[in-house]
Write a structure and sequence with these properties.
The protein has helices spanning 11-20, 33-46, 53-60, 64-76, 93-107, 111-123, 165-173, 176-185, 199-212, 254-258, 261-280; strands at 80-82, 89-91, 126-133, 136-143, 158-160, 215-218, 225-233, 239-248. The chain is an alpha+beta fold and 281 residues long. It has 2 domains: 11-94, Arc Repressor Mutant, subunit A, CATH 1.10.10.10; 108-280, Beta-Lactamase (2-Layer Sandwich), CATH 3.30.450.40.
């Protein structure tokens, strides 16, 4: 999943931009190898699908041997990785960490944090903003409720996909085939009595979430804790992140949490506006 802060472009134009951008050159007129590598990373990061070496070569006007050599180097460094069962490539864990670090570094002073604070004050509970990162949910920002009994997770924390409200929301968006592959590879660990560890049951739950665009965690990750999540979209309407509230069951029942969905959806729309404004600036 990916938060973009550049000028909004269509997928085709974003990819084309990496190829059309003038490259820095050495005195001999040849582009620096580093610039070629960065162009490949830009294309991979901007694409909404895995890309093959051939596609990257054509897109960036690189000779096939050069594209292969650079891709191999980037793969070895963890900046790119092969899509399972394919010869195509997606961002690697190191590139993902780099992108998350850049976003996270500015998060505390960004308008997004103010929106989370306002929502937390209205609801009186903890608010989370996160994205999918590999096989986990990554919290990019978090505002704790002003209560003695709180849920102590820091920004940058990872939580499972299959038993958290944000995680199940992310899973529900995935194409069924890709999701099936991921679910087969995940360890569906049982954290509480309510954790869904049966793939068929989880799939049925995800289909309901996909239709409702609201996800819940009914004490599935932490006993005595309930959560509700809604999607956050970018300026093109793509679901890129999630907004969630969480609270101890002693303070908020799941039914009470669901009553806050309209407020959460309004806050999610405000978060979209901040993404749009960043693109314009």
């Amino acid at each position: 999943m990916q938060l973009r802060t550049g000028t909004p472009l269509s997928n085709k134009n974003r990819l084309k931009g990496a190829a059309d951008r003038p490259a820095s050159t050495e005195p001999s007129g040849k582009a620096f190898p580093t610039v070629k590598a960065v162009s490949i990373l830009e294309a991979i990061a901007s694409a909404r699908r895995p890309l093959s070496v051939t596609e990257l070569g054509v897109l960036l006007s690189l000779p096939k041997p050069t594209a292969h050599r650079i891709v191999r180097m980037l793969e070895n460094e963890g900046l790119m990785q092969r899509e399972p069962g394919s010869r195509r490539f997606v961002p690697g864990p190191r590139l993902v960490r780099l992108g998350l670090g850049i976003v996270g570094a500015a998060m505390s002073s960004a308008p997004r944090h103010s929106i989370l604070e306002a929502l937390s004050q209205k609801i009186g509970e903890t608010c989370n903003f996160g994205i999918i990162n590999g096989s986990h949910v990554l919290y990019l920002d978090r505002v704790e409720a002003a209560w003695p009994l709180g849920l102590r997770f820091e920004s940058g924390s990872h939580v499972p996909l299959h038993c958290t409200s944000m995680g199940k929301l992310f899973l529900s968006w995935m194409p069924k085939r890709k999701r099936a592959v991921l679910l087969r590879s995940l360890q569906l660990l049982r954290y509480t009595e309510n954790t869904i560890t049966d793939v068929s049951r989880l799939e049925a739950e995800l289909e309901k979430i996909r239709e409702a665009e609201v996800s819940t965690d009914n004490q599935e990750f932490l006993a005595g804790v309930v959560c509700v999540a809604v999607p956050v979209r970018d300026q093109n309407g793509h679901r890129v992140a999630a907004l969630a509230i969480s609270a101890p069951l002693a303070r908020m029942s799941l039914e009470q949490g669901l009553q806050h969905v309209p407020l959460m959806q309004k806050a999610a729309e405000e978060l979209t506006v901040t993404i749009e404004e960043e693109h314009k600036s």
